[in-house]
Design goal:
Layout: H1 44-47, H2 58-143
Length: 153
């Protein structure tokens, strides 16, 4: 942001400023209450910096900061004005579809599989015991008498 050297303090008389209302709730405009986009806080000093050996004119640096912050703000506002409504509609339809799919298809199939699994598991275990277990046992007995001797010469 702007350095404190360029900011001026203005005194305000208590009688000219609008009076405080004690019963008014505090204004909170939390658009990211869970902080999922906290990594997007980019300031001028995060992008541009001049080393001690190089300095531009103070006014150039100040105006660059102001223009950076203003262009970032207004470009974001314009792009969000263009993109926000279509993206909101798309994501709303997408989450509605996924919610409906999960409620009416995935969960009933999951519950059906949970109900049908014990008999299927018993049948599958029996099939493996009848067909695959004797084959694996025979191959194991045939290969069990093979010994390898490794020597360094």
């Amino acid at each position: 942001m702007i350095a404190d050297d360029y900011l001026m303090e203005c005194k305000v008389d208590p009688g000219t400023f609008p009076p405080q209302q004690d019963n008014a709730p505090p204004k909170s405009d939390l658009r990211d209450p869970r902080g999922i986009n906290s990594h997007l806080k980019v300031d001028f000093s995060d992008v541009l910096a001049e080393p001690a050996s190089f300095h531009s004119f103070d006014k150039v640096w100040t105006w660059s900061d102001i223009l950076f912050e203003s262009s970032k703000l207004w470009c974001y506002r314009i792009i969000s004005l263009i993109c926000a409504i279509p993206v909101s509609l798309f994501t709303g339809f997408l989450f509605a579809f996924l919610g409906c799919l999960h409620i009416w298809c995935v969960m009933p199939c999951s519950q059906f599989c949970n109900l049908c699994m014990p008999p299927i598991r018993t049948l599958w275990t029996s099939i493996l015991d009848i067909l695959l277990a004797p084959l694996c046992s025979s191959i194991g007995r045939c290969c069990g008498s093979i010994y390898l001797i490794i020597s360094r010469e």
